[in-house]
Amino acid sequence: MSQSSSITQIFLLIAGSLCLLLGALGLFLPVLPTTPFWLLTAWCYTKASPKLYQRMMKVPIFGNCIRNYRLYHAISIQNKIISISTLWITILLSIYLVNKLWITILLLIVATGVTCHLLLFKTLKK
Question: Fewer CB under 10 Å: which end of the chain, C or N?
Answer without folding.
Answer: C
